[in-house]
Amino acid sequence: MPQFTVQYFPRHCTRTVETYQTCLIANDDNKQKCEGEGNDILAICPPWALDKMRENNLLKQKVEAQANQKYREAMRVPDYNQGRTIADVPNKTWEDGERSKLRPASMWADDRYADITQKEIDEAK
Length: 125
What we know:
Blueprint: H1 11-26, H2 35-44, H3 47-75, H4 118-124
């Protein structure tokens, strides 16, 4: 029976990566000041862990690129609205929002049974 297991990075490898990230945060992402910590990662981590980190980074970049592409597509102005502004919308657009043209939330939108009491309902039953 095949099993899926999570392959964790060695502890010394993750600690050196955390040290490098802490250095970047402390030095405002100045990679020149953190060269030593970056070289420590290459020296301490085994090759398989470095390869896996690279794959994870590429996957993260791919997912981010897909999300950015979806965002750009969603925010793109459609062809029928190219060159139009709010000033192009006519002032009389609210007439379609009147009660006579909207579907009511209740079954009787004209309130024909609004004045019926509970006593009359019980008598009708």
